[in-house]
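Researcher: Structure prediction, please.
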Amino acid sequence: MEWLTIGTFARASRLSPKALRLYDDLDLLRPARVDPETGYRYYTPAQLERARLVAWLRRLGMPLARIREVCALEPAAAAQEIRGYWARVEAETAVRRDLAAFLVDELTAAPRKDTTMLELRYRAHSDRGLVRPHNQDTAYAGTRLLAVADGFGPAGAPASGAAVEALRFLDTEEVPAGNVLNLLEDAVRSAGEAVRKLAHGTDETGTTLTALLWTGSRLALAHIGDSRAYLLRDGDLFRITHDHTMVQSMIDEGRLTEEEALSHPQRTLLLKALTTDTPDLRSHDTAPGDRYLLCSDGLSRVIPDTTIHDLLATAPSPDTAVHHLVDAANRAGGPDNVSCVVADVVETAA
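Model: Predicted structure follows.
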């Protein structure tokens, strides 16, 4: 058998000897032989393919634990895992791109010279639905803060209430546009701490959280879980949040279609919740006539986006819209609590 020293193998695989020692310690790439007297590591040419795969995956930025899983798979399954990993990287990059664009706009925007002012007109409505014995949702709408939280577990209702309560101070303070994302991120972190205290260190209790914070010209978004935010603008409906669920990750990876996801047995399984991960944060420019919807999955799981669009587009006011949306969810069986917040961006004279 041909033996390659660690130096020769490192050059051939484009991995450093230091990296090879680490991968040996992690049981990711074991040498074929270790000299019992000197401790020298030796490899075989047959190990080069795996070594090069490890090197390529590291260049992608894949964590070592994930690389170990990929290397253990057959080629077709490994390719599927790499495709899914990269889809998530692109989604996270898009979030950072939006944040970078927001910061550039903030630092380079010229002061407004017009006297047109914008404000929100809003309404919140939450309903137990027709099946669940208790309502574990919390919905809130105020002059500056809009929020929906969907609690789960033994203390789901207190959890969603505590999360929203931790944000309510934002509704009474003037919010500087240049600091809004930092302010919102700090508030969400406090909300997570409040929920953790209720959960007593377990994962059985938690909540989603989707919140919008108004600065007078923009809305800052914080989102984690499977509650949603939508924007109706110029007659078109856009979903501006990304579900943090198992089925959404499978859709992103191409393993599931949107239609298949509707009946998937794990469609309610969350990958992220307020107490376990950091939220998505971004900022949205607003325009007069915009209508925003925040909702728990008790609406979005039973009412298709086409119907949500029609109900939002035809309702004359936020108050009418939230009641029509909740009523539609209940007519569809009301299998879950359903909460909606609708806010319109309107012009006011300076």
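Model: Residues 75-108 form the longest helix (34 residues).
Researcher: Thanks, that helps.
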